[in-house]
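Allow me, if you will, to draw on your knowledge of protein folds for a short while. I have a record of one protein: its chain in single-letter code and its fold written as discrete structure tokens. I remain grateful for any guidance, and I place the record below:
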Amino acid sequence: MGGHVSPFIHKGGAFVIKISKLEIENVKRVKAVKIEPTANGLTLVGGKNNQGKTSVLDAIAWALGGNKYRPSKAAREESAIPPYLHLTLSNGLIVERKGKNSDLKVVDPDGQKGGQMLLDSFVEELAINLPKFMSSTNKEKANILLQIIGVGQQLHEFEIKEQEVYNRRHTIGQIADQKAKFAKEQTYFPDAPKEPVSASEMIQQQQGILAKNGENQRKRQQLTQIQAAYDQQARELERLEALLNEAHIKRAQFAEDLDIAKKDALDLQDESTEELQANIRQIDEINRKVRANLDKDKAETDASDYRVQYDQLTTEINGIRQKKTELLTNANLPLPGLSVDDGELIYNGQRWDNMSGSDQLKVSTAIVRKLKPDCGFILLDKLEQMDLETLQEFGQWLEQEGLQAIATRVSTGEECSIIIEDGYVAGQEGVTLQTQPGEIDPGTTWELPKTNTWKAGEF
């Protein structure tokens, strides 16, 4: 920026800058046009196709946005006089492009000069190039909004965390479903023991029974032996008369032993090993059933555990989403009802592609205004896509917000503020703004046609 900048030009957002007057000559299809846009609301430039409506907006964008907005064929083909652009802004700045090279001159009310950097300090690029914003992706629009309200990074971190927890929950849910399906498909044997059967323990039990039965057999054999001895002694009574007394003593002793042995043998009962042997033979089948039951129980337990984890992650996700909602609720949003959800703009509950044309313009204008609050105007092309009711609604909203919009529409109806016909404003046909190349006629004074302004409920 060259030269001194008057403090009147920019006071840190203390006022909103709009276009007070504009004069355009020999730019694209425009021959000579002078317009005084309404300060608040919609100034609608109407006319048929190829009459110069869009050329008016292109000229304003070039005047304020710099040579990157210069049309590829800026000069009107039929004219030898170069393009002439002259804008008066509400802060008193005069912006002019004229001469062979269309040099820029910016002068403040104090006579101090500036340049493109001065214009860039308060002219928002998207205000003169709104199609760039409206044609951006939903996420790009949302990112612009989040950056200007200062919560973009925080919201981005919340979304990353939410996605991470969501992915974990999704995986946990899949595992839980798989475990539940696996458990459901498993066969269950209600008659099987809870723990696998040990073959060694059953063999030890069998050996214990066999040992006990062997002891019983030993005692039976002992009984037989004593009985034989007793019988032998009885037979020898005849032969051993001489030893009768001694034999009687021995026999008495054997009688006592016999009584004891009989009593012991009377209570003895042998245990069968047939069931145990059958169980040993069936141990593999029993254990198969036990393992199947354990697998089913574990699968059901695993599924239940994963469901608990899933519910915990759901609670965590809801907490993150609540923080996102609180972050946006407490943010200084440019429009009531405007928010961001899942990286996309939401206005009154509708995503961009479901918004009405009027709402899309409201959202775009509000966001562009928020980018540079000092920039109080916006350029809009091709509003013929809107019906009259939508136009009126949008115009009333602009007035309510104290915003200025200069727009074009293929129409010659009463809704149009001015009509462009063959490069002129209707009623200004044949006038010129320059008497010779590169010079302004100081004596050119002529009254601007009155523009229609929006009134609530009428056109």
Summary: The longest strand covers residues 19-27. The CA atoms of residues 82 and 100 lie 6 Å apart. Confidence is low (pLDDT under 50) at residues 1-14, 437-451, 453-459.
